Amino acid sequence: MTPSSDLNCKELVELVTEYLENSLPFGEKAQLEAHLAVCPGCRIYLEQMRQTVHAAGHLTEESLDPDNARQAPGTIPQLEKQRLKVAPASCQ
What is the pLDDT of residues 3-38, one digit of tens each? Predict the structure, then answer.
């Protein structure tokens, strides 16, 4: 994180998973929420991540195309462990 109390978009992206899991320390959560208050791009990004987590939580092996499931075994658990490290497009 930056030495100041301001959080930039890239730093927010790195903290989104912990934020959604409600595991951020109070100070970092406050910084993230302060950034969200002034950054529409990051608000959109956060909502997209919420929707992605929600949708991924409803996937089952049975709902996957059999050809795709065979090509990518373990993909869903892998994705759950990874974090996107790309700042929202509207951020600088």
Answer: 346 899 999 999 999 999 999 999 999 999 999 999
Task: Identify the CA nearest to 12 among candidates 48, 52, 53.
Answer: 48
DSSP state letters, 39-83: -HHHHHHHHHHHHHHHHHTT--GGGS-HHHHHHSTTHHHHHHH--
Q: How far is CA 45 from CA 33, 39, 69, 70, 74, in A?
A: 13, 10, 28, 31, 25
Length reported for the chain: 92
What's the whole-model pTM score? 0.62
CA-wise closest residue to 39 among 16, 7, 14, 17:
7
Extract the tokens encoding 20: 């959604």
Burial of 10 (0-12, 13-18, 19+ CB in 10 A): middle
How many Cα atoms are found within 13 Å in the side-chain-facing hemisphere of 50?
Answer: 9
